[in-house]
Amino acid sequence: MPRKATGLTAAKVKTADPGRYGDSGGLYLLVRPEGGRFWLFRYTVAGKMREMGLGAASGRDAIMLTDARTAARKLWEAVRSGRDPLEDRKAEAEAKKAAALAAQARAMTFQDVAIAYIAANEAAWRNDKHRAQWPATLKAYAYPHFGGLPVADVDTGHVMAALEPIWRSKAETASRLRGRIETILDYAKARGWRSGENPARWRGHVANMLPAKAKIQPVEHHAALPWREIGAFVAAVRTQPGLAAQALLLTILTASRSSEVLCAKWDEIDMKEGVWTVPGARMKAGREHRVPLSDPALAVLRGLLPLRNDEAGAWVFPGARKGRPLSNMAMEMLLRRMGRADLTVNGFRSTFRDWTAETTAYPGDVAEAALAHVVGDKVEAAYRRRDLFEKRGRLMDDWAAFCDRPAQTDATVTPIRQAG
């Protein structure tokens, strides 16, 4: 038992000068020079002196002397029984925090978490189509089964209830849905709203219950125009009015992805040097890509200069909505108007790759670099970036020239030239 002090009175608690005053049973009154009176409990555990605050001794929330003595007496009994009051308080706080998190988790439904995840991440998604697909697939296929369920309670049975009805009929959609559910459940775990293994994970789990997508639905590649027909097709595109036709021409002539062209900005393009530098944030591989611009590609851009405004970050292909680029459906709709709904815009990259392989002597890695495909390891890729730009420039000049020729009907292939 701590040494007994002279004891405190209610009056002394209110009037004592700055200092520390002992009462009994380890209870102390602390009066600070700057103001404020507080109760302390001092005790020894394992030979170490410890001090624990009990609350205010003055002010609106002041603890009365009698109540402070009662609290100190209970704490002293805990010390005598071998417990450490500070550790008890810490454990109690952790238990309350865990209970609060559990209550929060019970209140957070799968749909709530999905909405939170999308809101936190959609700004980083590259195109409007991807941004729209996330909530649409969840609303159509996941929410009806477990959207209103606490996210902590979503289990394998719920996930399978969403996937099994569409796994064979809509394999691609179902595969994306599974990945999105897995991502949302991982997000919920990271936020402390659920625990344990992810019931939507593929390897070692869902893969054991559903056939691989490739076994039930062959991979569908982008419909591509045969390379011999590109000349006639480009000639037809040149007769079409509107921005979509110009965007499609630039897409074909640069062998770029549609999203890269539609989101192109004037400050990325050096007309004098004939170089278009696409930022890494818009590239599929996540790194900057320099595109050598052939004379026909530059001609397309020069034709668009009258539409250019002087604002920073101005779009090359501005859309109908202010501040937005041309819609990602604009070129697809153009293909339909031309009676070529059998083609896809990104399929022209395959046309370019087939033409390179079958009619030129350019090495494959030059063509792959032109398509911004990642080839080899990081060291090899770094080396190639130093010496392929000029070769890619010659390749794109040859491609543009070929695109302006009449349709090819002769099956004889004559290599254009080597890249060296």
How does this model look, in words?
There is one protein chain. With 420 residues, the protein is of the alpha+beta class. The chain is 48% helix and 9% strand. The chain is built from 17 helices and 7 strands. The chain has helices spanning 10-15, 65-80, 85-107, 110-121, 128-146, 156-167, 171-190, 213-216, 230-238, 243-254, 258-262, 295-304, 330-337, 347-359, 364-370, 378-387, 389-403, and strands spanning 19-22, 27-31, 37-45, 48-56, 269-270, 275-278, 289-292. The strands form 2 sheets. The protein has a 4-stranded antiparallel β-sheet with strand order 1-2-3-4, covered by helices on one side. Strands 5-6-7 form a 3-stranded antiparallel β-sheet. The longest helix has 23 residues, at 85-107. The termini are far apart. Mean pLDDT is 85; it is low at 1-5, 377-385 and 410-415.
Please describe the topology of this protein:
Blueprint lengths: L9 H6 L3 E4 L4 E5 L5 E9 L2 E9 L8 H16 L4 H23 L2 H12 L6 H19 L9 H12 L3 H20 L22 H4 L13 H9 L4 H12 L3 H5 L6 E2 L4 E4 L10 E4 L2 H10 L25 H8 L9 H13 L4 H7 L7 H10 L1 H15 L17
Antiparallel strand pairs: 1-2, 2-3, 3-4, 5-6, 6-7
Helix pairs in contact: 4-5, 4-7, 5-6, 5-7, 6-7, 10-12, 15-17
The shape is: elongated
Radius of gyration: 35 Å
Count every helix, treating DSSP H or I runs of 4 or more residues as helices: 17
* Helix-and-strand structural type: alpha+beta
Quote the average pLDDT. 85
User: Biggest sheet: strands side by side, in what order?
Assistant: 1-2-3-4
Strand content: 5-15%
Main β-sheet: number of strands, strand sense, barrel status? 4 strands, antiparallel
Helix content: 40-55%
Q: What is the N-to-C succession of helices and strands?
A: HEEEEHHHHHHHHHHEEEHHHHHH
Count of β-strands? 7
Unreliable runs, pLDDT <50, ≥5 residues?
A: 1-5, 377-385, 410-415
- What separation lies between the terminal Cα atoms? 92 Å
